[in-house]
């Protein structure tokens, strides 16, 4: 199986070994569920995963090493959650990531450290509709801006903040 669509269900948790045996899976869509917690080892065995959608769930915090088993992942959609905190090292293991969607969360404050250890491959980072009113010094220190398309940050009313 290459694609698995589990959207619009009532999943609230992804425990350890949730997808064991799906070694060839490339696309996993878990959007529009009620996911609040994800075990660090939920992704174990997903060696071929390229696309992961977790949009419109109830995630509030991204812990350190949350995606460490997804070294081939290229596209991660986390938009429309309730994310207010991204721990240092949350992006560890995402060695191939080039598109990251964090739009429509609650990342309005304390962005410094949220983007530490970003993969060099990242080309696109979406932070629209987070209510961001200021950006601390060193927020982008680990983001390789020279590789990215123009960075666009919008405040809660849709006004672009120049970065």
Structure description:
The protein is mainly β. The chain has a single domain (1-163), classed as Ribonuclease Inhibitor (Leucine-rich repeat, LRR (right-handed beta-alpha superhelix), Alpha-Beta Horseshoe), CATH 3.80.10. The protein is built from no helices and twelve strands. The strands form four sheets. It has a six-stranded parallel sheet with strand order 1-3-5-7-9-10, with no helix packed on it. A hairpin with a 5-residue loop joins strand 11 (153-154) and strand 12 (160-161). The mean pLDDT is 86.
Brief rundown of the structure:
The protein has 163 residues and is mainly β. The chain has a single domain (1-163), classed as Ribonuclease Inhibitor (Leucine-rich repeat, LRR (right-handed beta-alpha superhelix)).
Q: Name the beta content range.
A: 15-25%
Shape: globular
Query: What is the count of distinct domains?
Result: 1
- Lateral arrangement of strands in the main beta sheet: 1-3-5-7-9-10
CATH superfamily: Ribonuclease Inhibitor
CATH topology type: Leucine-rich repeat, LRR (right-handed beta-alpha superhelix)
Alpha carbon gap, first and last residue: 42 Å
Q: Which CATH class?
A: Alpha Beta
Number of helices: 0
Short descriptors:
163 residues, 12 strands, globular
Task: Give the topology.
Layout: E1 3-5, E2 13-14, E3 27-29, E4 37-38, E5 51-53, E6 61-62, E7 75-77, E8 85-86, E9 99-101, E10 124-126, E11 153-154, E12 160-161
Parallel strand pairs: 1-3, 2-4, 3-5, 5-7, 6-8, 7-9, 9-10
Antiparallel strand pairs: 11-12
């Amino acid at each position: 199986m290459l694609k698995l669509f589990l959207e619009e269900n009532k999943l609230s948790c992804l425990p350890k070994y949730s997808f064991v045996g799906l070694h060839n899976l490339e696309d996993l869509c878990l959007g529009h569920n009620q996911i609040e917690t994800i075990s660090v080892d939920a992704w174990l065995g997903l060696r071929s995963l390229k696309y992961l959608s977790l949009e419109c769930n109830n995630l509030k915090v991204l812990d350190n090493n949350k995606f460490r088993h997804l070294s081939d992942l290229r596209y991660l959609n986390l938009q429309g959650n309730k994310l207010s905190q991204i721990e240092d090292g949350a992006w560890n293991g995402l060695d191939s990531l080039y598109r990251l969607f964090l739009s429509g969360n609650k990342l309005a404050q304390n962005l410094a450290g949220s983007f530490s250890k970003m993969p060099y491959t990242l080309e696109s980072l979406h932070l629209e509709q987070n209510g961001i009113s200021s950006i601390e010094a060193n927020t982008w220190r680990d983001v390789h801006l020279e590789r990215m398309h123009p960075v666009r940050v919008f405040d809660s009313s849709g006004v672009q903040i120049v970065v």
